[in-house]
């Protein structure tokens, strides 16, 4: 079956602009995660959804970052007033149940965001 | 100080060598320990996960956890050029969250 997909694969924007990054999880997966990976670093947790609700948003760096998952499937990560420091690969992952079950998080290929 | 420390490498070994990759951590609340492999311009993929101290083997891969020392390792036997990738350790603190805390990643190059 299809894995996690993310669009766009690459996004170039100018400082101060607004961007939206989309994640399509594996069908039927309840839990969805967003991570950010800077060059030469490991993924850094941003937010985790259990169904439609954000179960843990402790990793969002500031109020310019916001994510939604209105129907419990597709999720959108929104970044307002982008800054050059936001340049990174934004990774999405999904898992079947979440909610404290120990299970594999399946990652998408990421969206490479470059803020000029 | 980061919660999870991992030597970024790069680590370059000849084909057939035994590779040892390591991470240390500071948070004793970490309960689940994973190793992910990431090829260039791809997302991470899970290799192995362990819960308790001790060893877990899967084919050419062995994961080792020493909770008393807060130290985890991944061993790769008979390394192959196709093992060339970045290896990320990841940990989960539980505490009502499923988030993973990743190390920096170690870049491994296996040459023929």
What percentage of amino acids of chain A are in beta strands?
Answer: over 45%
Major sheet of chain A: 7 strands, mixed
Name the structural class of chain A: mainly beta
The topology string of helices and strands of chain B comes to EEEEEEEEEEE
Of all chain pairs, the largest interface belongs to: A-B, 29 and 26 residues
| Total of DSSP H or I helical runs spanning 4+ residues of chain B | 0
Structural class of chain B: mainly beta
Q: What can be said about the biggest beta sheet of chain B?
A: 6 strands, mixed
Q: Percent range for helical residues of chain B?
A: under 10%
Number of helices of chain A: 0
Count of extended strands of chain A:
11
Radius of gyration of chain B: 14 Å
**Radius of gyration of chain A (Å):** 13 Å
Strand content of chain B: over 45%
Helical content band of chain A: under 10%
Shape of chain B: globular
Order of helices and strands of chain A: EEEEEEEEEEE
Mean pLDDT of chain B: 92
Shape of chain A: globular
Write the layout of secondary structure elements.
The complex is a heterodimer of chains A (116) and B (112).
Chain A: E1 5-7, E2 10-13, E3 19-24, E4 31-37, E5 44-50, E6 53-56, E7 65-68, E8 75-79, E9 88-95, E10 106-107, E11 111-115
Parallel strand pairs in A: 2-11
Antiparallel strand pairs in A: 1-3, 3-8, 4-5, 4-9, 5-6, 7-8, 9-10, 9-11
Chain B: E1 4-6, E2 11-14, E3 19-25, E4 32-38, E5 45-50, E6 54-58, E7 61-66, E8 71-76, E9 85-92, E10 101-102, E11 106-111
Parallel strand pairs in B: 2-11
Antiparallel strand pairs in B: 1-3, 3-8, 4-5, 4-9, 6-7, 7-8, 9-10, 9-11
Question: What does this 3D model show about the protein?
Answer:
The complex is a heterodimer of chains A (116) and B (112). With 116 residues, chain A is mostly beta strands. Chain A is built from no helices and 11 strands. In chain A, strands 2, 4, 5, 6, 9, 10 and 11 form a 7-stranded mixed β-sheet that branches. In chain A, strands 1-3-8-7 form a 4-stranded antiparallel β-sheet, with no helix packed on it. In chain A, a hairpin with a 6-residue loop joins strand 7 and strand 8. The radius of gyration of chain A is 13 Å and the shape is globular. The model of chain A has no long low-confidence stretch (mean pLDDT 94). With 112 residues, chain B is mainly beta. In chain B, 0% of the residues lie in helices and 54% in strands. Chain B has no helices and 11 strands. In chain B, the strands form 2 sheets. In chain B, strands 2, 4, 5, 9, 10 and 11 form a 6-stranded mixed β-sheet that branches. A 5-stranded antiparallel β-sheet of chain B has the order 1-3-8-7-6, with no helix packed on it. Chain B is globular and about 45 Å long. The interface between A and B is medium-sized, with 29 and 26 residues.
